[in-house]
Amino acid sequence: MTVGTLRNAQLVINQQAIFNNVKNAVQHTDDQTDLFIVLKANGYGHGAIQVARIAEKAGAKGFCVAILEEALELREAGFNEPILVLGITDPTLAPLAAENHIALTISATDWLEEAAAAMAVDPRLPKLAIHVALDTGMGRIGFQTPAELTAGLETLQTHQDVFIFEGIFTHFATADSKDDAYFKKQYANFQELMAVVAHKPRYVHVANTATSLWHHVCGANMVRYGISTYGLNPSGREITKLPYDLHPALTFTAGLSYVKKIAKGKSVGYGATYTADEDQWIGTVPVGYADGFPRKMQGFSVLVDGQPCPIVGRVCMDQFMIRLPKSYAAGTTVTIIGKSGDRQVTVDDLADYIGTINYEVICEFGERLRRKYV
Ligand SMILES: *Cc1c(COP(=O)(O)O)cnc(C)c1O
């Protein structure tokens, strides 16, 4: 993928903000509990390697990713911390994970049999670390019943020569909600499943960011800390009370590439959906939906010189147009996310506008957008 290193459009990542977020999370975690930073999807769009470097300085003890490739990328970059793949990996890849000291998540006994067979091919391989997922109500992956789990743990035990039982975990579906009834139900299911685990592994983990911020859980010793590493609230605007401040790390700016006056009655953009009802100044911004800036953003206001300027006409693949209050020079900064003067546009503002969550907005930003680290 070609990165726009020369055009004036960039995601500016504030490294100090990430450091402060991780540091605060570490300080609010008890001494027996390790903070693992979730770096999936290129560190929620912020750059996995860069975020990992900051997180380790701020006291993170390990990393979680979604897929094996993301774990390998971190190993290739030289990180030696424990890394856990949260999704299900094909059992034939067990040797590759083992060789790179990457822990894998399992959800079924069959998987262990297939992976053990793959591991047996090369007796010099280090053991593969396994984290057992428990489905307590997320309905995604994990053992569902004590009987299933017992069978899985027995198989793990049988193949002690190739596996290490390193962790056991669950994931909550509603930890970011004010209503904690479903959370409590899941927590009870978790305790019921854990009752069949005779020997606790090194890591027992249940908390994503929301759980770590708003719930009390016993017996766990690792946190999978994701969205608030990047300074965002996992609940969006639902729960505003936080144990510590979050510092949004991402700013999105671009320079006006072209400014012109259009006469009353002229239209702007594909489909000619916008027509000027008076003479107007129109600025063109070199960012489009191919950069992960959603086409549905038409009508949303970005900031120029501290003033809100609405996006007029449809967002194109590589450019969009805004209505300016007056003439501005080409190159003038357009703040798409961030502060300008007394005003601010947040990731949550974009998310609300298109009916999604902050997570999706930051993950969608394309590889073509340059990430600038400050
Ligand atoms: C993505 C993910 C997390 C991190 O979630 P946040 O809400 O960003 O903290 C934690 N655990 C699992 C299993 C995940 O898939």
From TrEMBL:
- One Pfam annotation, family name? Ala_racemase_C
Q: Mark the residues carrying the PTM N6-(pyridoxal phosphate)lysine.
A: K40
Reaction it catalyzes: L-alanine = D-alanine
Which InterPro entries does this chain map to?
Ala_racemase (IPR000821), Ala_racemase/Decarboxylase_C (IPR009006), Ala_racemase_C (IPR011079), Ala_racemase_N (IPR001608), PLP-binding_barrel (IPR029066)
Q: What class of enzyme is it?
A: isomerase
Q: Can you provide one Gene Ontology molecular function annotated for this UniProt record?
A: alanine racemase activity
Domain of life according to the entry: Bacteria
**GO-annotated biological processes:** D-alanine biosynthetic process; peptidoglycan biosynthetic process
What cellular component terms from Gene Ontology apply here? cytosol
Per the UniProt entry, the Enzyme Commission number(s) are 5.1.1.1
Named cofactor requirement(s): pyridoxal 5'-phosphate
Report the SMART domains cross-referenced here.
Answer: Ala_racemase_C
Q: In which pathway does it act?
A: Amino-acid biosynthesis; D-alanine biosynthesis; D-alanine from L-alanine: step 1/1
Q: Which UniProt keywords apply?
A: Isomerase, Pyridoxal phosphate
So what family is this one in?
Answer: Belongs to the alanine racemase family.
Q: What is the name listed in the Swiss-Prot or TrEMBL entry for this protein?
A: Alanine racemase
